[in-house]
């Protein structure tokens, strides 16, 4: 990562922070780290925050010794540079141990074993989305090796984490995560992240096929886009960063990302942090699930593999999906009720404090604490940028992608994080300035561009209909109407 001077995992830490290991000091206290995460609306790299984590030493070789003969599912993809994304529904899968993966990955001839049908020069392998709780089911003590509490989330460790192990070229198709924000700890090797802000969603041509709860995919291979088919993509703003070992990437809510391994072996650990907005998002996801499953099952009841992501193992019957939707709506109302009770309790405490004869100055502080705290927090965020050697913003890329010129396996591994202050755009707390009406115009333009194809290509498929019905903007409106209607019924 070409960051601000000194912004490397081994650089000297900033003075004045609170966590100490010998002479090394962590640049942010847990409280400050959480404050940054909860207010920042732009991807950023935390440095020097995980140097004392036991998981810092979790190389693939070390994990192969820990897991011994544990069978792990690897997704097999082709090292190619065409314009079609390699979705998980189109990949092959192999059950193998980490030792077998490492042997294959070292280019050793494998005429037997699980990887025998996959030429290393033509394929990559990716053990992705491996939940610790399943992977280390008989070694739960290892959960403590991951210390997300350093970022202000007490008790969060490996139990709430997933592991990712891949060979060079292994990647995740461009998508956004519906729930929460994301913290990613890079352990071994480097990964290149391509990120796009939520406001650019219409330019990413969102789709829910393949269907996976909590993931909205892009139809575009963002490292080799087909601009004739997806002309609006040229308007998307690409942020890029190469994540190095020891660093932690913060990905804000609903930022699109495409992630590729650019070293022979990569190991990453991530955790999705829950947010208040997730309560309504679960209703939106339940609506999406019901519509996708109903239409796709009606189209072909016996071929769910073609549209249902391999990560989805739950039953997709209409009865189950109805139950899921009702639970999501009920949970949202329960959450809102609890917030009302919490606010009422705060007001009661405030009134009690008044009765105890607080001085006038203190009384004014108590009465206005909610609005004042919010306002002061905003002012502080705008007045003092949190960025520096230990928190590096991921900025807009102005360079042509090596992958777009020559293909991802001919790139030079160049880092794409700029120095603080070098880009003319704002480097922190990106403002969502685009109006919804403008996004709706873009959706209309996108539809028009799709419909300008040759007559033989204008047949409207079930997937085309679903792209409209479960477009994130549409499901948000439907969820709001459903919630409003439920409120009136109550």
Main features:
490 residues; alpha+beta; 9-stranded antiparallel β-sheet; 6-stranded antiparallel β-sheet; 17 strands; 32% helix; 19% strand
Would you kindly provide a written description of the structure presented here, covering whatever features stand out?
This protein is an alpha+beta fold and 490 residues long. Helices cover 32% and strands 19% of the residues. Strand 11 and strand 12 (215-218) form a beta hairpin. Helix 5 (278-299) packs antiparallel against helix 6 (318-355), helix 5 packs antiparallel against helix 11 (462-469) and helix 5 (278-299) packs across helix 12 (472-489). Mean pLDDT is 82; it is low at 1-16, 360-364, 374-383 and 402-437.
In short:
The protein is α+β, with helices and mostly antiparallel strands.
Topology, element by element:
Blueprint: E1 19-21, E2 24-26, H1 30-39, E3 44-46, H2 60-67, E4 72-78, E5 92-96, H3 98-105, E6 123-131, H4 132-135, E7 162-167, E8 171-177, E9 181-188, E10 191-196, E11 206-212, E12 215-218, E13 239-243, E14 248-251, E15 256-261, E16 265-273, H5 278-299, H6 318-355, H7 360-367, H8 369-383, E17 391-393, H9 402-406, H10 436-450, H11 462-469, H12 472-489
Antiparallel strand pairs: 1-2, 3-14, 3-17, 4-5, 4-6, 6-7, 7-16, 8-12, 8-15, 9-14, 9-16, 10-13, 10-15, 11-12
Helix pairs in contact: 5-6, 5-11, 5-12
């Amino acid at each position: 990562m070409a960051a601000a001077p000194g912004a490397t995992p081994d650089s000297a830490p900033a003075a004045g922070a609170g966590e100490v290991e010998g002479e090394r000091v962590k640049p942010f206290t847990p409280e400050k780290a959480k404050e940054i995460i909860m207010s920042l609306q732009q991807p950023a790299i935390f440095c020097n925050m995980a140097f004392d984590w036991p998981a810092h030493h979790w190389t693939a070789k070390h994990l192969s010794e820990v897991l011994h003969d544990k069978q792990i599912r690897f997704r097999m993809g082709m090292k190619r540079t065409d314009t079609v994304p390699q979705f998980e529904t189109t990949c092959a899968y192999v059950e193998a141990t980490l030792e077998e993966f490492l042997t294959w990955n070292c280019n050793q001839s494998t005429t037997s074993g699980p990887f025998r049908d996959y030429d290393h020069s033509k394929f990559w392998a990716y053990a992705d989305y491996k939940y610790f709780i399943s992977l280390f089911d008989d070694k739960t003590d290892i959960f403590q090796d991951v210390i997300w509490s350093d970022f202000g989330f007490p008790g969060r460790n490996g139990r709430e984490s997933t592991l990712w192990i891949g060979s060079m070229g292994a990647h995740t198709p461009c998508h956004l995560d519906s729930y929460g924000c994301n913290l990613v700890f890079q352990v071994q090797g480097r990964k290149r992240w391509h990120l796009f802000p939520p406001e650019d969603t219409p330019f990413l041509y969102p789709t829910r096929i393949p269907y996976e709860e909590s993931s909205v995919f892009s139809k575009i291979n963002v490292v080799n886009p087909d601009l004739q088919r997806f002309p609006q993509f040229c308007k998307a703003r690409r942020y890029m960063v190469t994540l190095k070992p020891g660093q932690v990437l913060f990905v804000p809510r609903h930022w699109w990302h495409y992630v590729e391994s650019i070293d022979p072996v990569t190991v990453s650990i991530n955790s999705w942090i829950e947010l208040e907005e997730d309560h309504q998002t679960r209703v939106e996801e339940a609506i999406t699930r019901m519509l996708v499953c109903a239409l796709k099952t009606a189209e072909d009841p016996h071929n769910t593999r073609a549209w249902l992501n391999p990560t989805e193992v739950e039953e997709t019957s209409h009865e189950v999906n109805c139950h899921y939707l009702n639970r999501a709506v009920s949970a949202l109302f329960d959450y809102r009720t609890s917030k009302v009770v919490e606010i009422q309790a705060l007001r009661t405490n405030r009134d009690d404090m008044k009765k105890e004869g607080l001085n006038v100055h203190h009384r004014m502080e108590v009465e206005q604490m909610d609005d004042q705290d919010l306002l002061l927090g905003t002012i502080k965020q705008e007045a003092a940028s949190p960025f520096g050697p230990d928190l590096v913003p991921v900025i807009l890329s102005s360079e042509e992608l090596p992958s777009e010129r020559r293909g991802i396996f001919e790139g030079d591994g160049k880092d794409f994080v700029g120095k603080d202050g070098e880009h003319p755009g704002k480097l922190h707390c990106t403002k969502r300035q685009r109006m919804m009406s403008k996004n709706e115009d873009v959706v209309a333009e996108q539809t028009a561009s799709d419909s300008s194809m040759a007559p033989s290509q204008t047949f409207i498929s079930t997937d085309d209909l679903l792209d409209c019905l479960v477009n994130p903007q549409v499901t948000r409106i439907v969820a709001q109407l459903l919630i409003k209607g439920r409120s009136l019924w109550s």
